[in-house]
Amino acid sequence: MREKLEELQVEALQKVDDASDAKELQDVRVAYLGKKGPITEVLRGMGKLSKEERPVIGELANKVREKIAQAIEQKKTVFEAQEIEKKLAEETIDVTLPGRPAPSGGPHLLTSIVEEIEDIFIGMGFEVREGPEVETDYYNFEALNLPKGHPARDMQDSFYITEELLLRTHTSPVQARTMNAIGGNKPVKMICPGKVYRRDTDDATHSHQFTQIEGLYVDKNVRMSDLKGVLDRFAKKVFGEDREIRLRPSYFPFTEPSVEMDISCKVCHGEGCNVCKQTGWIEILGGGMVHPRVLEMAGYDPKVYSGFAFGMGPERIAMLKYGVNDIRHFYTNDVRFLNQYHKA
């Protein structure tokens, strides 16, 4: 797979160099960086690799994609300059007229955060999985150790469509579906981003619709220290190499033991301030070791396999990273807010 990625890089860079106009350049972008391109196909096939190879190939794929994108942007700049020179030579313009700038769009802040998190975990050998937003009660609750009547169901007040169908309250059902599909006899290392829904009153920190990214790693001899290492790498990539993490005991029905993860406050660096409520730490996500009952229901033998799972909210990540004080800003489509995070 390494050789294939290197060949794709050489081939793509040559086609970028050979492109004679912007249309050909765009065709190269779509062919190699699009959702149906060969690099995406390589990433989708990473599940077949050994756990040692996945992070190496994931990192290499990201580097190849970045080099191709940089080459395309450089060539695009050349074409744009040539086009301007051509127009200046052919057209007579009145330079005293005021300009008419055309506003340009860009990725939404949440989209950018989700893609950044995906890239981090792909680099660590995780693959990205998706599932339905209208979910069955079984996968949303029962397969995650939440049988009917379980009191922990009250933690997630749900939008039911029928007695057995609802809008999913978290992305964990994708984990259960993936383990069932694998059959309980192979490792799984995945993240699942997506929208989730809960009956909640919208305010500065809550929304009835929001985004979650949950992760799962199941294999032989997976330990809590593996979870801590993955989350520590994630926190440093997102918030900076100087950030520290800590894990506190908690409770979730689908993990045992369960933990909450805090990161050191970037404002006071752990000394204590109003942002961290004088603790020096800010809660960011939850996780733990996959409950043996969840493994059994997915077909895994908990005496042979173990695993960890975690879940985070990209809205909270964005609020902490960029200092956003109201979650509703992400959904009201106020261009004054969105333009602050548009990268030209």
TrEMBL record:
GO annotation (BP), single:
phenylalanyl-tRNA aminoacylation
Question: Superkingdom, according to UniProt?
Answer: Bacteria
Report the residue ranges that make up the Aminoacyl-transfer RNA synthetases class-II family profile domain in this protein. Answer: 109-320
Comment on bound cofactor: Binds 2 magnesium ions per tetramer.
Alphabetized UniProt keyword annotations: Aminoacyl-tRNA synthetase, ATP-binding, Cytoplasm, Ligase, Magnesium, Metal-binding, Nucleotide-binding, Protein biosynthesis
Q: Which PROSITE patterns match?
A: AA_TRNA_LIGASE_II
InterPro entries in the cross-refs: aa-tRNA-synth_II, aa-tRNA-synth_II/BPL/LPL, Phe-tRNA-synth_IIc_asu, Phe-tRNA_ligase_II_N, Phe_tRNA_ligase_alpha1_bac, Phenylalanyl-tRNA_Synthase, tRNA-bd_arm
Q: What class of enzyme is it?
A: ligase
> Cross-referenced Pfam families, in alphabetical order?
Phe_tRNA-synt_N, tRNA-synt_2d
Enumerate the catalysed reactions. Answer: tRNA(Phe) + L-phenylalanine + ATP = L-phenylalanyl-tRNA(Phe) + AMP + diphosphate + H(+)
Q: Name one GO molecular function term.
A: transferase activity
Listed cofactors: Mg(2+)
EC numbers listed for it are 6.1.1.20
Intracellular or extracellular location(s): Cytoplasm
Q: Which GO terms describe its cellular component?
A: cytoplasm
Residues recorded as binding Mg(2+), renumbered to this chain, are E256
Q: Report whether Metal-binding shows up as a keyword of the record.
A: yes
Could you describe the subunit structure of this protein? Tetramer of two alpha and two beta subunits.
Q: What is stated as this protein's family in its record? A: Belongs to the class-II aminoacyl-tRNA synthetase family. Phe-tRNA synthetase alpha subunit type 1 subfamily.
- By what name is this protein known? Phenylalanine--tRNA ligase alpha subunit
Q: Which organism is it from?
A: Gracilibacillus halotolerans
